[in-house]
Design brief:
eight-stranded antiparallel barrel, OMPW, 1 helix, OmpW family protein, OMP/PagP_B-barrel, 224 residues, Porin, 15 strands, signal, 2 domains
Length: 224
């Protein structure tokens, strides 16, 4: 009986030692595994002030020395981004602007040809670099579809600028103040050369407007 009691006491001591040695480590391991990962939404929006700086080139077919220029503008712009991964995102840029079209070269005497509003929704696919802490640079490329509306003729009888597709290149960065708010700087080059028709003195003429604008913007980023 005495031997049995001693054996039981010994086994109990070993079990308690094993629990005290391994229990806390196991609990720490389990705590590390079970710790919840903070969820970050894939959606992000930005509100920017945007400068639209055009290339100021173009011509009327068959008119030697013809050239065109377009007014530059500053507008508000909204963009919506969706992150497929930490590095890959798609961005939809929304904004509208106007341009005064002016004759240059042999068209200088015409003065302002007309005015048009432009809606160019632009979609880019971006690569975001994630190794710089709060500083998050990115590059992108995509396409735009330029919609010209509210066109008014001035120095001509009629003006019709055709809607057209164009390509877009992009570079920029976000500097994140916290998990949600940041400051953004963004530069895009849009390759946009729509065809147009004008009527002058009853004669219909055609040409090409080489807008090819730079879009230079800065504003606020919000990550949901």
């Amino acid at each position: 009986m005495k031997i049995r009691n001693q054996t039981a006491a010994l086994l109990t001591g070993v079990a308690l030692f094993a629990f005290s040695s391994n229990g806390p480590a196991t609990a720490a391991d389990l705590t590390g595994i079970a710790a919840p990962v903070e969820y970050q939404s894939p959606w992000q929006i930005r509100l920017r002030g945007l400068g639209v700086v055009t290339e100021d080139e173009g011509y009327v077919d068959g008119v030697a020395g013809s050239d065109l220029s377009y007014s530059d503008t500053v507008i508000p712009e909204l963009d919506i981004s969706y992150y497929f991964t930490d590095n890959i995102a798609a961005e939809l840029i929304l904004g509208t602007t106007y341009a005064n079209v002016t004759g240059n070269g042999s068209l200088t005497s015409m003065g302002r040809v007309g005015k048009t509003w432009l809606l160019p929704p632009t979609l880019t696919l971006q690569y975001h670099f994630t190794d710089f802490g709060k500083f998050k640079p990115y590059v992108g490329a995509g396409a735009t579809y330029a919609i010209f509306y509210s066109q008014d003729a001035d120095g001509v009888d009629d003006l019709d600028i055709e809607n057209t597709f164009g390509a877009a290149l992009q570079v920029g960065f976000d500097y994140m103040i916290d998990d949600h708010w940041g400051w953004n700087v963004d530069v895009k080059k849009i390759f946009l050369e729509p065809d147009f028709d004008v009527v002058v003195g009853g004669n219909k003429l055609s040409g090409k407007a080489k807008l090819n604008p730079w879009l230079i913007g800065t504003g606020v980023t919000y990550r949901f």
